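Summary: Need help interpreting a holo structure output

Steps to reproduce:
1. Submit the protein chain below together with the SMILES for flavin-adenine dinucleotide.
2. Request a joint structure prediction with the ligand placed.
3. Inspect the structure token block that comes back.

Expected: a single structure record containing both the chain and the bound molecule.
Actual: see attached output.

Input attached:
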Amino acid sequence: MKSEDGFLLPSSRLEKVQSWGMNREALAYVYRPSTVDGIREALNDAHRAGRTVGIRGGGCSYGDASINSENVVLDITRMNRILRWDPQEGIIEIEPGVTLQRLWQYVIGDGWWPPVVSGTMFVTMGGAVGMNYHGKNNYKMGPIGEHVLEFDLLLADGTIVTCSREQRPDVFYAAIGGFGMLGCFTRLVMKMKRVYSGLLEVEAFATSTFTEIARVFEQRMAVDDYLVGWIDCLATSNGRGRGLVHAARYLKPGDDSSANQTLQIAYQDLPETLFGLVPKSIMWRFLKPFSNDTGMRLINWARYFMGSTVGNNKTTRQSHAAFAFLLDYVPNWKRVYLPGGLVQYQSFVPAEHAAACFDQQMEICSKYKVFPWLGVFKRHRTDNFLMTHAVDGYSLALDFPVRKRSADRLKQAICEMNRVVLESGGRFYFAKDSMLTPDDANAYLGQDVIARFRQIKRELDPDGLWQTDLSRRLFGNWNSDTAPNRALQEAR
Ligand SMILES: Cc1cc2nc3c(=O)[nH]c(=O)nc-3n(C[C@H](O)[C@H](O)[C@H](O)COP(=O)(O)OP(=O)(O)OC[C@H]3O[C@@H](n4cnc5c(N)ncnc54)[C@H](O)[C@@H]3O)c2cc1C
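--- attached output ---
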């Protein structure tokens, strides 16, 4: 894109923008509009200066999905009004910068809960829909997009198109999960899930291999509302795939005699201190001495040991927030991964190949001596969104520390794991990605899907205004039909 009349963006807007995994950062011209007209002004500036625009919500994507180096970043967090709430029907209309935290806190007192939540409540709902995020109930409730009734999408030319399953369904199914490439959501209408208590019934038990955990999930999918597995990825080959399962069910009307109380925000809120003593804001510092493979091996072992002995086969009642947002218990926990930050690698594999594929991934990690400090296992189902990441199968999300001395080995390991995932018919997820290549994206999305997405993009955004570092890495600048030059990718 060319600048008109030599217009330059104000240098006062230049800010450092970082990936959530803290392993990428760039300077960008950051605009923080609080109205639709404010967005239009930012787009106008970008047009005049010949810059592209990347949309950013809470910045919780692990890689480069909401970074737009040396271009405009449209930070949408100030567009955070709740526009309408119908507590009878559970239908809410919001601006895209409303966080998941604000959303659940707004609706729970009336006996509703967001039908799909991610592992952190600090995402915005615009970002959630932009990636079509999934929860620990993906096999039952699908991704968040299945609960969106309608949205307004602000296009590159400043006009707004309203989309639903009936009105512009092509754009509806492409913009949800369209990683901010078709326009900016400025209004979302969503349906919440009725709940009769602020508590869930949670069962915890241990499993010893990927095959076993997958078998247990298959057996329990029909009865449990949420299923999530934690995997000890630092176990030796004898214990490979061992982990803990947490299965949760909603309570039925009448099951909780204190429902009025448990549905209050105060009851849900995560405690400010651990054991009533340690402020949670400094807890990550206690983990810091363990921030190496040996320390993490010990922590993983202790977690598995406790979970498979004293905690095994225990059933408890837990608040929705405590169950859903476990990771938010320890604010800034990601700092344990400094100085290099972390990469999350999440692959989605059809059920019949999942256990073998994840076993192979663990073997590859051992071969390259790069060990994930956290592994999370989930069950998924397919959906109808154009750029879907889901499969009828399982995902394994692995958190790898990034270190200078092991960076090359990590890259090689991920490359090899990608191959195994693709051979198994698997998929990937842009919210977690930092290392896919255009060939990988092509292989799992398929040329037809990419061509269809490009066609819709050309219609809505003929100049390729909406871009991010991730979109350029995987799809070039959108103005041509070809993926970015491979040699250029490799040189980066
Ligand atoms: C600790 C942690 C746990 C997580 N757990 C899960 C999980 O369980 N399941 C899961 O699926 N994901 C999970 N995620 C990933 C997270 O849900 C997604 O990355 C989500 O998109 C982040 O929302 P955000 O508001 O931070 O968006 P950003 O990361 O800022 O942006 C995400 C994408 O949406 C686009 N976008 C943002 N706002 C808009 C808008 N208004 N209009 C159009 N496009 C927009 C951006 O351009 C970008 O492509 C987790 C992330 C973290 C850090």
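--- end attachment ---

Reviewer comment: DSSP finds 17 helices and 21 strands in the chain. The mean pLDDT is 94.
Status: needs-info
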